[in-house]
Amino acid sequence: MKKILIVILSVMMMITVAGCGKDKQATTSEESVKRVGILMPKKESPRWIKDGNNLKTELEKRGYKVDLRNADNDADTQRAQLQEMLATGTDIFIIAAVDSTSLSDILIEVKEKNIPVIAYDRLIMNSTAVTYYITFDNRGIGESYGRFVEKSLGLNDSANTFNIEIFSGSADDNNARVISEGLMGVLQPYIDNGQLKVPSGKIEFGDTTTHRWRKEEAQNRMNYLLHNVYNDGTKLDAVICASDGIANGVIRALDSHHVDSQPIITGQDGDIAAVKYILEGKQSMTLFKDTRLLANQCARTVEAIFNGDTIEVNDTSTYNNNIVVVPTYLCQPILVTKDNIKEVLVNSGYYTAEELGI
Ligand code: BGC
Q1: What's the domain count of the chain?
Q2: Residue 125: which domain range?
Q3: For residues 351 and 288, is the Cβ–Cβ distance under 8 A?
Q4: pTM, rounded to two decimals
Q5: Is the CB of residue 200 below 6 angstroms from any atom belonging to ligand 1?
Q6: What 3-state DSSP class applies to 209?
Q7: Same structural domain for residues 122 and 237?
Q8: Which of 89, 109, 195, 337 has an alpha carbon within 20 to 30 A of 245's alpha carbon?
Q9: Which of 48, 74, 178, 268 to mutate to test the pocket of ligand 1 (most atoms within 8 A of CB)?
Q10: Domain of 128: which CATH number?
Q11: Does residue 79 sit in the same domain as residue 164?
């Protein structure tokens, strides 16, 4: 009997010891899983939802633990999200800032803790905490708008004059300024020689911005211009919109005023609503930013940082955030018009033909 009891007790002890070992192992491997904090800026435009989801998938595929937040265009919400993630513990941050300067003070703490920060799509200004920047070529986007307008209006081939309006992005987003610089690099000579007129008189970046890229604000401004500047029959030949969301607001205003002739309208992102407007002939083009590319590049960078590998960058001189030049990887957007929607957006699997109704 005594012998049996001893055997039972030793088996129980072995089980307990083995159990402890297992728990310990689980905790250790749980602890070694790297945590990635993703802060996205906006819910209104579909691209940021896709960006967030693509990033999450790419990072989880690589075995990382992801905390994904979206600040819904509110800078204070984003600050609170960053602070919370910092407190709970994160090994790297990927941030598309709502406001490019409002995170600077919290980022000082992030830097003190040696946590790398990847600025995603939007450069974070006035901070030394930004380790890398991954984005699309914003200057190139502005230049593409300019060249599209130049070509569509035949500015190079004749001395005809045209009326345009400019709707820039948000003043607190560095992308908006860089796009504007690219655009004006192409169009300023035509404004100077009088071939392009801007009847509203609003030409400078600071006079043409759209706060937080809100479509309602663009719609209101376009409505105002139609009531007060174009109410005498002045023909509007082009509206250079810095994003598909802004184009959406402008098109709504034009629709509600039943403007007869269709102006050239630009945009970027490849939002589904914009692609449908292009099919209808209400928007002329969009610069498709394949969020899968950006997410993939970002996930590869995260992996390289964690593994101590060489980081792939292709621009080490352009993106100065007022304090440091941030090593950058630039992706290229693709110009989409009615002619290549199927080829670029459907054949690549970004949208299905059914979604676009084609
Ligand atoms: C992005 C654009 C986007 C805009 C509004 C910019 O920072 O680069 O792709 O359309 O924000 O969401």
Answers
A1: 2
A2: 33-136+290-326
A3: no
A4: 0.91
A5: no
A6: coil
A7: no
A8: 195
A9: 268
A10: 3.40.50.2300
A11: no
SS3 labels along 132-179: EEEEECHHHHHHHHHHHHHHHCCCCCCCCCEEEEEECCCCCCHHHHHH
Closest CA to 120 of 76, 58, 211, 209: 58
Our answer on whether the CB atom of 50 is closer than 6 Å to any ligand 1 atom is no
Of ligand 1's listed atoms, the one at least distance from the Cα of 175 is 7
Q: Identify whether residues 147 and 282 lie together within a single domain.
A: yes
| Protein residue with least CA distance to atom 3, ligand 1 | 243
Residue 293 zone, left/alpha/beta (φ > 0; ψ -120 to 50; rest): alpha
Quote the ligand 1 centre to 189 CA distance (angstroms).
27
243 Cα to the center of ligand 1, angstroms: 7
Residues 248 and 276 both lie in one domain: yes
pLDDT tens, residue by residue, 243-282? 999 999 999 999 999 888 999 999 999 999 999 999 999 9
Asked whether residue 209 is assigned to any structural domain, the reply reads yes
Report phi then psi at 183, rounded to 5. Answer: -65, -50
Relative orientation angle of helices 244-256 and 215-228, to the nearest 10 degrees: 40
42 lines ligand 1 (CB under 6 A): yes
User: If you take atom 10 of ligand 1, which residue's CA is the nearest one?
Assistant: 243
Q: Ligand 1, closest atom to CA 44?
A: 12
Higher model confidence: residue 163 or residue 26?
163
